[in-house]
Every structure is written in C-alpha cells, then in structure tokens.
Amino acid sequence: MSHMLKFDLSSVGAEVGAPAPDRLISGNPEFRTWNLEGAGNLYAGIWEATPGKWRIVYDEWEYFHILFGHSIVTEEDGEPLHLKAGDSLVLRPGFKGTWEVVETTRKDYVIRL
C-alpha cells in the first residue's frame, strides 16, 4: 500500500447531492463530491457546487482551498467573505452561517470529524 494519494478524479465517481430543503435560501444548487480519502475521522476530496444559497452548520473541522469559481461565506452576525481561486479557509466546529455560490465553485478539502 502506498503512503501517497494523488487527487485523481478519474479514480472515483462523483456523488451528487444538494442542500437539505429546510436549509435552502435561494436557487437550485447541485453538489458533486469526489471523496478520495476516508480513514477513521479524516476525509479528503474535491467538492463542486452550482449557484445558489443555503444555511450551513459545522460540527466538524474543515480546511479547504478554492480551485475555481466565486462563493460567499458569511458567519451569523458576520461580514461576507468572498472566496475565489487561490483562497483557503478553515471552518471550525460550531460555525453557523450561509454559503452562497455566485459562480460554480470547486474546492479541495480535508475534514476532521
């Protein structure tokens, strides 16, 4: 077994999803997720979403890096944070707010439960 993992989307199929109806604020966003690593309480992969806006609540810790697109993440009672290609962010457990995809956005991520 190798101790390296290249993020190769051709090695795994995408899971398709959407925000839960009770969290949807606007639009009709669709998610595609390529889970490339799942070991214990750690997950890594690629996530993509089409335009729309929904409420998010984090119980987990997540680091991500925007590969392309434009999204706006806003914490409750906070200022909007515009994210574009090259931006990185950590969302910590307890984060509550909204995610708005302005232009289809793709990110790579590492999540720790």
Automatic annotation (TrEMBL):
Start and end residues of each (S)-ureidoglycine aminohydrolase cupin domain: 38-109
InterPro entries tied to this protein: RmlC-like_jellyroll, RmlC_Cupin_sf, UGlyAH_Cupin_dom
Pfam hit, one: Cupin_3
Lineage top rank: taxon: Bacteria
Gene3D superfamilies named among the record's database cross-references: Jelly Rolls (2.60.120.10)
Protein name listed in UniProt: (S)-ureidoglycine aminohydrolase cupin domain-containing protein
